[in-house]
């Protein structure tokens, strides 16, 4: 932990410089323009809690996104309502990006499925999108357990290869092709998933903590989050580089960071894992620059935080969930 704290301190020096640059770039809003009040909205998106004037009807779509350094920056992650970050083989993480309130033009690079990604996507009744699969995941997908599109069957048609990256870091799919593929296979693209629990417009109480580092055992996959007071959002960094969208250069901005400890077991010589998604356990919830220790539970396939036995609501906005083998891999900035 001392080593992680020391690493975090070094990262924070870098991030502070980034914060100053962002602060200088942010323009002050026109005082004459009133912001739209939340109570004016008749409906809310189910996975972000953000207000909308029309009822959400879009089915959730869950896509496995590559996080190898050669796949960065990715496309479409900044539009995801929820992202799970989970270890695959070795000390390499992958993302399960779940979309409902927004659909980016394209998502990728898309990577192969593992059983636990399928289970997490099932919790939102998602259309599951991947390119490839482990033997166990292939068997589960073949059983019809979840509606799915896979690049193994649609490479070169629904899934396109980018010429500026090398395989397996170059498979992309557009949302138009996701909807096209769903139509070809007879999948419905509605209804919207059941809503998550959200907080009212109050300030979460907890220990002040505006920066955190998560070590996955390989510096290239270490994660840092920094809270930006002006924006009221968390910025995300991989190996010290801010996570941005490849095309738009927009940063990934988050409202909830949930870090949960789950049992990991290596299954074979390839390093494939089983992960205990159902056991419950320890974790941390970061919102609005404060941190709370939580217990997580699997509620109908969704990983949700609890404080003192009561379900903790999310702040309206986007959520990133980091699954780690141990909370000892998490270090917070000293105040």
Describe this structure in words.
Pfam families: DUF3048, DUF3048_C. The protein has 335 residues and is of the alpha+beta class. The chain has two domains: 161 residues, YerB-like (YerB-like fold, 3-Layer(bba) Sandwich), CATH 3.50.90; 139 residues, YerB-like (YerB-like fold), CATH 3.50.90.10. It is 16% helix and 32% strand. The strands form five sheets. Strands 3, 4, 5, 7, 8, 11, 17, 20, 21, 22, 23 and 24 form a twelve-stranded mixed β-sheet that branches. Strands 12, 13, 14, 15, 16 and 25 form a six-stranded antiparallel β-sheet that branches. About 5% of the residues have low confidence.
Q: What does this entry show, briefly?
A:
This protein has helices at residues 2-25, 115-122, 135-142, 151-154, 175-185; strands at 43-44, 51-52, 61-65, 82-87, 93-99, 106-107, 127-130, 148-150, 159-161, 171-174, 207-208, 211-214, 223-228, 233-238, 241-242, 253-254, 256-261, 264-266, 273-275, 281-287, 290-299, 302-307, 310-311, 319-324, 330-332. With 335 residues, it is an alpha+beta fold. The chain folds into 2 domains: 2-25 and 196-332, YerB-like (YerB-like fold, 3-Layer(bba) Sandwich), CATH 3.50.90.10; 47-185, YerB-like fold (3-Layer(bba) Sandwich), CATH 3.50.90.
């Amino acid at each position: 932990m001392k080593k992680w704290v020391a690493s975090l301190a070094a990262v924070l020096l870098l991030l502070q410089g980034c914060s100053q640059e962002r602060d200088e770039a942010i323009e002050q809003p026109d005082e004459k323009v009133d912001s739209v009040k939340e109570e004016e909205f008749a409906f809310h998106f189910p996975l972000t809690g953000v207000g909308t004037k029309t009822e959400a009807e879009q089915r959730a779509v869950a896509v496995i996104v590559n996080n190898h350094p050669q796949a960065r920056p990715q496309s479409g992650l900044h539009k995801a309502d929820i992202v799970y970050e989970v270890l695959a083989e070795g000390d390499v993480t992958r993302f399960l990006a779940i979309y409902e309130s927004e659909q980016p033009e394209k998502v990728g690079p898309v990577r192969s499925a593992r059983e636990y990604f399928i289970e997490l996507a099932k919790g939102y009744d998602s259309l599951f999108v991947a390119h490839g699969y482990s033997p166990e995941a292939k068997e589960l997908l073949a059983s019809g357990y979840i509606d799915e599109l896979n690049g193994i069957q649609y490479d070169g048609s629904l899934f396109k290869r980018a010429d500026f990256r090398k395989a397996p870091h170059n498979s992309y799919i557009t949302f138009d092709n996701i909807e096209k593929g769903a139509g070809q296979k007879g999948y419905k693209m509605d209804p919207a998933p059941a809503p998550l629990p959200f907080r009212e417009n109050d300030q979460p109480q907890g220990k002040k903590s505006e920066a955190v580092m998560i070590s996955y055992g390989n510096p290239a996959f270490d994660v840092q989050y920094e809270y930006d007071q002006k924006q009221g959002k968390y910025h995300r960094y991989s190996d010290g580089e801010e996570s941005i969208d490849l095309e738009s250069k927009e940063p990934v901005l988050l409202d909830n960071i949930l870090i949960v400890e789950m049992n990991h077991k290596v299954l074979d010589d390839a390093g494939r894992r089983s992960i205990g998604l159902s056991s419950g356990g320890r974790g941390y919830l970061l919102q609005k620059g404060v941190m709370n220790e939580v217990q997580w539970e699997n509620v109908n396939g969704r990983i949700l935080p609890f404080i003192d036995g009561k379900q903790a609501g999310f702040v309206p906005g986007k959520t990133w969930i980091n699954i780690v083998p141990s909370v000892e891999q998490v270090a917070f900035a000293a105040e």
